[in-house]
Specification:
- The longest helix has 37 residues.
- The chain has four helices and no strands.
- 72% of the residues lie in helices and 0% in strands.
- By secondary structure, it is mainly α.
- 7% of the residues are buried.
Length: 107
């Protein structure tokens, strides 16, 4: 599954910074997000997610930071690979054990 990043990290950082700096001038953070999202050409929901993740990364909000999320994803991928390898080894061991039992004894 590939994801295209339409917006550069610089654009994301600038948009989030604009929201955080200008939210006092709006009725709510959401209204600031809607206003700034229309100016940079992204959906308000996309910008809201960027703001929430920045708040988590800076400690203003609870949750998994970007680094923790990436580490979790890597560990899950490694876990899947190890489970596959263990299953292959288990089947190979069963195959060779059965082959040993089927072999005629030498006299």
């Amino acid at each position: 599954m590939t994801r295209s990043n339409r917006y550069s990290p610089e654009v994301r950082e600038r948009a989030v910074r604009m929201v955080l700096e200008n939210e006092r001038e709006h009725d709510s953070q959401w209204s600031a997000i809607v206003s700034i999202a229309s100016k940079i050409g992204c959906s308000p929901e996309t910008l809201r997610k960027w703001v929430r993740q920045t708040e988590v990364d800076t400690g203003r909000r609870g949750g998994l930071t970007s680094d923790e999320r990436a580490r979790t994803k890597e560990l899950e991928r490694e876990n899947r690979e190890l489970r596959r390898a263990n299953e292959i080894l288990r089947k190979a061991a069963a195959f060779f054990a059965q082959a040993e039992l089927d072999r005629r004894p030498k006299r």
